[in-house]
Batch of 2 targets.
Target 1
Amino acid sequence: MSIPNKTDVIIVGSGPTGLSLACQLIRYGIDFVVIDKNLGITPYSKALGVHARTLEIYEQLDLAKQALERGTIAGKVRLLEGGEIIGEVDLSNIGAGLSAFPFMLVLEQSENERLLYQYLVAHGRKVFWQTELESLSQDAAGVTANVKNNEGESQTIAGKYLVGCDGPRSPVRRTLGLSFEGSTFERLFYVADVRIDWKFSQDALHVCLSRNAVVAFFPMPGQQRWRIVGAFPEGHDKEEGEVLYEEIEARIKEEAELELDITRVDWFSTYKVHVRHVENFSSGRCFLAGDSAHIHTPAGGQGMNTGIQDAYNLAWKLALVLKGAAADRILDTYNEERLPNAKRLLQTTDRMFNLAAGTDWLLNVIRTTVFPPMAKFILSFDAIKKRFFPLISQIGITYRGSSLSEHDGDEDFAVKAGDRMPYFLLDGKSVYDRLREPKFHLLTFSDSERDYQPQTEIVAAVPIDSHVIPLSPHVAEVFGVDRSFNLLLRPDNYIAFISSDISPARLATYLKEIKRA
Ligand SMILES: Cc1cc2nc3c(=O)[nH]c(=O)nc-3n(C[C@H](O)[C@H](O)[C@H](O)COP(=O)(O)OP(=O)(O)OC[C@H]3O[C@@H](n4cnc5c(N)ncnc54)[C@H](O)[C@@H]3O)c2cc1C
């Protein structure tokens, strides 16, 4: 099949971000062309952690079950010093009550890409592999991408919009002239996927702490499979790509102080950690998503998950605009919502990373002496779990400051406009089971049928589902009110407004505002 020369959305790059965007556009019935210069999905493991928010998104694509079958749930963290266990923390159910997926799933990036790619193919779509973006131009009506196809021929694709999901070196970002400010850590890091013969079980992440180094062993799906991550000391004179695996293995053994036999090496790589983000996620009709817009330290395994969420945030907005159900300016809220998130992410991952890998003497003492015996105790507190899990799992990301979050009437609620829909059970099933359709959802929480007013005619132009949900004591506790209320959810399951005003006018005003040019 040759590359179409006309489409709605041109997606450049078919990593986890580009594939996610394509899958979301399929849900909305939007036409797209996705190209990638590579031969196929990545053969490398790269990102390992899949967080709760990503699994919630996968569930809407009906992929969560397969992801769970292919991966393993991160069970425990064991802290080791001098080869001995000095602390252990159970993580397997750390987000209980906060998500249908109260854990982190270990599933390598190549498998995530495979899942998304299979979804795309199952829906009759394809990626144009070995097709490279060479240049692009745009005007008020659209974007033209000049590409070289898999036979080396040049071709143009005209699109209404273009999204650069083309990774950290992003040709799209460079062409748009968007700056990518930030810094680079001095130290060189290494990552190795190996098989290990040793005394430790695969139900835990093992972190070896010593005065000047941290070496982490992440269990991977498959027998004796582990990902080892560590860093060379400051002043090490070799650059990325110059280090041989033997040098890494010697360092691992010395720093981990463990008896272990590395029986096979599947992949290894060295890299410098960069912390950078763009100042704007878009320019005209072109957008950036994923690593093309932000890169940060690997702490907390946030990279791949963040790209998937960028795509999720942008897809529904593009879909509404392309269908004429929303004005163009709704697209500005993509940058409005995702840029502050990227900035926050860089700060938190930076802090976590410094704590884990910093060389400051005080940090060394905290890491090796103070933290290990206290870790289990600290994380046994519900209040701490409720702060820690939303941060790591990305379910705590909020768009309260967005112009799409209408705060009138949310003052008395524990949950505000701009927050992700809280998770709770209805008749023993997740509320998210009712929210899979790619539409707005109007939820009327009511202790009486009288409050239910079907509101379909006002909103004919915007796809919307209405639900009536009994106001049980548990639901009242989650939202912090015990009287009937309306909640409008955006198609990405973020709250547009929440209010005790259950009149049809409230909904009509919100949706009219979205359409207003
Ligand atoms: C060694 C390593 C370990 C990592 N570990 C973790 C981790 O533990 N946790 C985590 O969350 N993240 C981790 N990451 C980061 C994670 O891999 C990225 O955040 C993720 O890949 C970003 O996805 P993306 O789709 O935005 O970009 P990418 O995966 O980089 O995909 C970009 C795609 O664009 C294509 N492309 C580029 N230029 C062009 C062009 N001109 N024309 C056509 N196609 C083009 C590329 O071929 C590529 O397929 C790791 C990365 C590396 C390298």
Target 2
Amino acid sequence: MDFSWNNEQQEMYRQAIQFARAKMNSNIIEDDRLGHFSREKWLAIGQMGLLGLTISEDYGGLDLDALSGAYLLEGFGYGCKDAGLFLSMGAHLWAVTLPVFMYGSDEQKRSFLPKLCSGEWVGAHAISEPQAGSDAMSMETSARLEGDMYILNGRKTFVTNAPVADFFLVFATTNRSMGFAAINAFLLERNTPGLQIESKTEKMGTRTSPMADIIFQDCHIPISQRLGKANMGFRIFSRIMQWERGFILAPFIGRMQRQLEDCIEYANRRTQFKQVLAANQAISSKIVDMHLRLESARLLLYKAAWAFDHDDPALSSSSAKLAISEGAIQTFLDAIQIFGGYGYTTDYEIERFLRDAIGAKIYSGTSEMQKMLIANELGLRTR
Ligand SMILES: Cc1cc2nc3c(=O)[nH]c(=O)nc-3n(C[C@H](O)[C@H](O)[C@H](O)COP(=O)(O)OP(=O)(O)OC[C@H]3O[C@@H](n4cnc5c(N)ncnc54)[C@H](O)[C@@H]3O)c2cc1C
């Protein structure tokens, strides 16, 4: 594996930082307070190509390999202070746009991908249900085939971007008794009759990334809007979750890097008991641990990306997600401690990063589920 960057990749990384600093960091404290999603920022990241990283240029994407994409996202995360946007972007790109690119018909790709890549549309991925979270395949939302129409009924919950989404990837079952073998994926536009978005869900963090439940009541969908072949939903879901797990947290690597640098600067500057904080081993060892945590999470991300570009990513993608989510939470907790009372204030913005990072242990599969996947890969007899 070779993780040295060529000039083009380094230039892309620098541009991502500059772009994020210039265009992404206004009003975040207020937007977080109000739970406001910015369409203006969304369109800007679309113009920058971030919403179509690994999608073919034919449909408006950047056509990057996975490793370059991960590095670009890392740069974006270094410059951008809005971790809610990381979630909205990740859900849109990895769980909606990429599946259409990988499994869509030519007609579906032509109709939907340019709007998804440019930022004209916001995408949402709906699989979780009130009674089917980690065990997503036990879903109850049904899709009954009548002639050339599917009729959807049911409820999806915790759907990121739903309040502002223009386009949905929805999973439903055609026969509950058949389990994963009867799962199907559907592509729906917002104005589809029978699709209703419930009022926004309030949450602890990632508040600039809105979330809601979706209800389907005799929602008629033409067969041409099924993604992939009949009963292929489980295969689609499994494959795209590997991508999502691998990459959705890539911007947090940049954010953790920035937090590390801020902690070093502060610990070298702030004086108590006539010496800088850095002179206390209790403080410097926290910062060394922060560095080790970041380096190991970063290498797992690169390894996962490299594996996507070469062979089977299953193990590395769960390991990367686990290491980044758990690492980010500990990093922001330690950073608050190092900054003392200031770290606890809203203005220093670390408390928001902590709140935002906690969600990363839950979405795209909880930490417990990532450990189950890794245990299976290691050959442990988990069942
Ligand atoms: C910020 C955020 C964004 C989200 N975005 C989306 C989205 O866009 N689309 C979408 O469909 N869903 C989304 N979700 C939902 C998310 O995927 C689920 O919350 C997650 O899969 C867990 O399901 P659950 O909340 O029902 O918890 P449960 O599955 O009920 O789990 C509760 C607890 O039990 C543990 N647990 C469950 N089963 C096991 C087991 N077998 N072994 C060990 N521990 C276990 C879990 O790890 C967890 O700690 C989002 C969630 C959050 C927090």
